[in-house]
Amino acid sequence: MASPAQAPSRPGTTAGTAAGTDPDAGPAAGPGPGPGPGPRPGTPDTAPSVRHLGPNWYAVVMGTAIVANAGTLLPLTAPGLHVAYRVVWALSALMLLTLLAARAVHWGRHRDQARRHLLDPAVAPFYGCLSMALLAVGGGTLAVGREVIGEPAAVAADATLWILGTLVGLICAAGIPYLMVTRHRIEPGSASPVWLLPLVAPMVSAALGPALVPYLPAGQWQAALLFACYALFGVSLLATLLVLPLVLSRLIHHGPLPLALTPTLFLVLGPLGQSTTAVANLAHAAPGVVDASSAHAMGAFAVLYGVPVMGFALLWLAIATAMVVRAVRNGMGFAMTWWGFTFPLGTCVTGAAGLARRTGLTAFDWLAVGLFALLVTAVAVAATRTAAGLARGRLLAPPRPVTT
Fold this sequence. Notes:
Elements: H1 58-71, H2 81-109, H3 111-118, H4 128-149, H5 151-182, H6 197-208, H7 220-254, H8 269-285, H9 292-329, H10 342-359, H11 362-391
Helix pairs in contact: 1-2, 1-4, 1-10, 1-11, 2-3, 2-4, 4-5, 4-6, 5-6, 6-7, 6-8, 7-8, 8-9, 8-10, 9-10, 10-11
C-alpha cells in the first residue's frame, strides 16, 4: 500500500508524491517540495531522502509481519516452516524499528513535508498503517517471537505495542475523518478504498487483543480487555459500514480506479477478514472470562457473523482480482500500492483459520492454506520490486516535476 497519486486533492498538497512507481520509470509525477528546508538554489533535488518517506511505508511492515502471524495458524507441518516464520517475524521487527527511526528523522528535519502529508487527503489515511504495523509486529512477537526471546519478554513487548498501536489507531480513526471534514477538500466521486485504512486499525486491535487476555489477572482485568476488544470491533465495523457504500458508489458511477490505484481495491478485504478474525479470537478467549451462557453466545456469534462475511470477502476478492487483471492488461506497472495485496489477504487467512477452529470444517483449513499461498506470492513479488526500487534510489527520490 502506498499513498496514491489521486486527484483531486487539496491545493498545495502532495497527492501522489509518496507513491513509488515502477523503478524503471521513477517516482510518480507531482508537485515539488513545499516551503521549508530543501536543496540549495541551483541544485536539483534528485537524491533519495527521508523527506519523501511517507506513512505508507508502514504497509511494508504490515505485509511482512502478517506472513508469520497467519502461517502459525495453518495446519501445515512441513519441516522448517516455524523457523521461516521466526525469520519473517524478526525481519518485520527490524523493519519496524528502522522505519520508526527514519520517520522520526522525517518529522524532525522535514516538518513542512510531514504537515503536507497530514493535509493531503490522499496521504493522511496512511497514518492508520502506523497503528497496524505496531499491532502486527506485537502480535507476531507473542505468537512467534516468544520461541526466540522467551514468553515474559514476548508478553511485555506485545502488551506495549498493543497499547501504543491501539492508541494511535483510535487517534487516527477519529482524527483523519476530522481532517477530511475540516481541512481537506474532498471532491464528489473521489472516494477511495484508502479511506478504510484509519478505520480498520481498531479492528486489528480487536483481533490481537484477545491473545493478551490469559496473561491478565483473572476477573475484572480479563473481562475488561475482552469487552474493550468488542468495543474496538464495533468502532471499526460501524465506521467501515459508512465508508464502503461510498467506495462502491464511486466505482459504479465513475468507473475503474486509475491503474496505479487498482491494487487498493484489495484494502476492502482488510475489515472483512480482520473482523472475522476478531470475533473468532474473542470467542476463543471468552470461556472462563465471562459466564458460560455469554461465552456460548460469543461462540455462536463468531460463526453466524464470520461465515457470511467471509463469503462476501471471497466475492470481493473475485471482483478485485478481475479489476487487477484488467489493469495489468492496460499497462499497470509496479507501484508501492502493490503492498495493498498483502495485509488484507493475510487477514482473510487468519479469518478462515479462525472459522476452521470454530466450526471444525476442513474446508476452511484448505481455504486458509490457499489464501496463504496467494499471500506469500504477493509479498515475495512486492518485496522484490521494492528492494529493486530502493537499490536504484527511485522510491525515495522526489517526484519528477510535471511537464506540459
